[in-house]
Sequence to fold (392 residues):
Amino acid sequence: MKEYDVIVVGGGIHGAGVLQAAAAAGYSCLLIERRGLASGTSSRSSKLIHGGLRYLESGQFALVRESLRERAIHLRIAADLVELKPFFIPVYRTTRRRPWQLKLGLGMYALLGGFSAATRFGTVPRREWAALDGLDTQGLEAVIRYHDAQTDDAELTRAVVRSAQHLGGEVAMPANFRDAALRDAGVDVTFERNAITIEARARVLVNAAGPWATRVARAVRPPIAVPDVELVQGAHIVLPMQVTAGIYYVESPADGRAVFVMPWQGATLVGTTETPYAGDPDKVHPLPEEEDYLLAVAAHYFPALRPMNRTHIVRRFAGLRVLPAASQSAFDRSRETIFTTDRDPRPRVLCIYGGKLTGWRAAAEHVLSRITPSLGPKSRRAATDQLILRRT
Ligand SMILES: Cc1cc2nc3c(=O)[nH]c(=O)nc-3n(C[C@H](O)[C@H](O)[C@H](O)COP(=O)(O)OP(=O)(O)OC[C@H]3O[C@@H](n4cnc5c(N)ncnc54)[C@H](O)[C@@H]3O)c2cc1C
Fold:
């Protein structure tokens, strides 16, 4: 039986990050991915590497500070993949968030981002409104401009895995994790590859299976604690129109939720929604009412889209957020990553629930710090905030 320091289940951004962090720290590691890299949530996000301006409203300051720090690191190490973009927030007579509130929020955003050049914000002069991709100017009072970053989430995930492989990390794909048996110090893992059952031993198993994490955790024997989480679906649609000036951060006229209208591969990506999901994570897909909601938001702000209906949608996808179970709306719930272990201080299994694309590197470093007591010291090969990530 082959032995590793770390076996990771899941080839999304978190699994990729943990594989890279473990390899960079000098550990032997294997990632098991059932389908393809980023085939789950990590290709179905809003593709933003952002501080999360709206999380200020729910008081998640630590998350915003960490995300802005990670954004700055991305702009340095992944310049090929992550691009700073202007974001526009149009404020109409009827908009709930007033310009002073937005400026207050952006002032705090700048403070948490260390007042770097990328946190500058201001108002778009009225004479420049015509350059805003046909944004409706009727009743428009102000347009606030700030900056955040956009990426290709799947490309980013693949780049992190390549970086990990370069440092010696191994990948088994397609390979389906089946179960794990805890030993005194470590874990025996069973997975299937090409219809062959393979067993491998690890000091630590990291469960980075995203929306499937509960399923993976339940396949550990003897049973480990599984936190109370809920899945919340988010849909995106791609429309055959080009926005080029930047990313529009608009408020849904129906419920006040924030929705992004973004340039994406020569078209326009609109998202997202928050729909509780209780089904099989493999079967998630945008619902007709989610598509109608997103079409209505986009058409409300861009009159050129008003004749469009569902038949005009050129692509659609939905992903699943993993959020702590709670009674408040999904929109207001914590986006902090949840880490659980079978025991402390020498865990044999660590599970990652939720989190952000933006925070993958910080999450992976946190995982490493939690599992290092089980792994023992090794001489480090590299630092993850220095490893350059490139598009192929
Ligand atoms: C609609 C939406 C929009 C979002 N937008 C943003 C955004 O703009 N910016 C941001 O920072 N964050 C965003 N997020 C959050 C971010 O996308 C996720 O936190 C992140 O992609 C989760 O990655 P993951 O690796 O945990 O899970 P996943 O990407 O889902 O990866 C899990 C992997 O595990 C694999 N797997 C499952 N079971 C097994 C098994 N038995 N054996 C082997 N492999 C298995 C799956 O195939 C999958 O590839 C968004 C999330 C959603 C849902």
About this structure: The chain has seven helices and 19 strands. Residues 61-77 form the longest helix (17 residues). Helices lie at 13-24, 61-77, 99-112, 153-166, 213-217, 288-301, 360-375.
